[in-house]
């Protein structure tokens, strides 16, 4: 499954108590996500995510070690941070 959440001016990610195991691609471009802690929530809510497109957001830093990223996004194969 794919989810497109583009052009919504999101600044935060609201956690859902229910995980979406079937989501493989999340396209959340052209928003206003700035803090990496918001992106971490996506790994919890979408554990099967293999493609994450975060282009054109305002992320300042990725505050995560490579090992921690692998645990947080265990199936992630592609991430797009263009202009983020």
TrEMBL record:
SUPFAM superfamilies in alphabetical order: L domain-like
| Cited PROSITE patterns | LRR
Q: What is this protein called?
A: U2A'/phosphoprotein 32 family A C-terminal domain-containing protein
Origin species: Bambusicola thoracicus
Give the classification, highest ranks. Eukaryota, Metazoa, Chordata, Craniata, Vertebrata
């Amino acid at each position: 499954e794919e989810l497109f959440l583009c052009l919504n001016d999101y600044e935060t990610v609201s956690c859902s108590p229910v995980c979406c195991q079937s989501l493989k691609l999340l396209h959340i471009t052209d928003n206003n996500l700035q803090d990496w802690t918001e992106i971490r929530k996506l790994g919890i809510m979408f554990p099967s995510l293999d493609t994450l497109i975060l282009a054109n957001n305002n992320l300042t830093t990725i505050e995560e070690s490579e090992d921690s990223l692998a645990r947080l996004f265990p199936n992630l194969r592609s991430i797009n941070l263009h202009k983020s």
